[in-house]
Amino acid sequence: MYRPYHPPADPLLVRELTQVQQELRAHVRLQPLGYEPTLIAGCDSSFPTPETILSVFVLLQFPSLELVEKVYHVGPVEVPYIPGLLSFREAPNVLRAYDKLQQKPDIIMVDGHGIAHPRRMGIAAHLGVLLDSPTFGVAKQKLTGTYQEPAITKGSISPLTDKSGELLGEVIRSKDKVNPLFVSPGHRCDQTTATRLTLACLRGYKLPEPTRLADHWAEEFKKELR
Questions:
Q1: Which pLDDT score is estimated for 112?
Q2: Stretch among 3-17, 48-62, 98-112 having the lowest mean pLDDT
Q3: Its pTM surpasses 0.85
Q4: Is the separation of the CB atoms in 91 and 123 below 8 Å?
Q5: What is the residue-averaged pLDDT of the chain?
Q6: Which of these, 54, 96, 101, lies nearest to 217 by C-alpha position?
Q7: What average pLDDT does range 135-153 have in this prediction?
Q8: Nearest in space to 59 (alpha carbons), one of 174, 205, 217
């Protein structure tokens, strides 16, 4: 994936944010959801300009996936681009968007990784701990780990593991013959729940509806900013 050039980050900032990340990781809990959700949210962030971030939440009924709410927040980018620490760049603005929801979700599907991250703290885990809310990540690209390509048919799954064999997530074919998704739990969620809800939210597209609609509305909201 193309990334624009970014100057090297301040080593002191990297050290500081890495320490915060390790502290947040200590609070992550992987556990079954324990109940069937009635409201599921999707969230996504994009950068309309190099200096601004747009974060979107959509709230859907589950299992019908009827749209209940859609909100967004635009703010300044406060942290530089640092690989492995992108959650610090996105999370503050995502939380401001979350605050605008009139109803709160039972679980949040995040466009990004949960524990399938070099330090087990992708954006979904990061947000889950800060909100103390069930979260999981659905990402379009691998960040870490190894896997065997799942079969080409929709619903095929293979494990994503680290070098020691620890399960980081599952690689899911969400549509016949398209590139797979990388699904991992974030906080107060387990892999079984994350995979089940991802599959339950597919409606013929590569992306499950919560993150697909968050991405769709991000594009629509950008038009309001022009």
A1: 97
A2: 3-17
A3: yes
A4: yes
A5: 94
A6: 54
A7: 97
A8: 217
Count of positions (residues) in the chain: 226
Which of 158, 173, 182 shows the shortest CA–CA distance to 205? 173
The DSSP line for the chain is ------PPPPHHHHHHHHHHHHHHHTT-------S--SEEEEEEEEEEETTEEEEEEEEEETTT--EEEEEEEEEE--S---TT-HHHHHHHHHHHHHHT-SS--SEEEEES-SS-STTS--HHHHHHHHHT--EEEEESS--S-B-PPPPSSTT-EEEEE-TT--EEEEEE--STTSPPEEEEEEES--HHHHHHHHHHT-SSSSS-HHHHHHHHHHHHHHHHH-
Q: How far apart are the C-alpha atoms of 40 and 151, rounded to whole Å? A: 28
**Position of tokens 């885990």?**
125
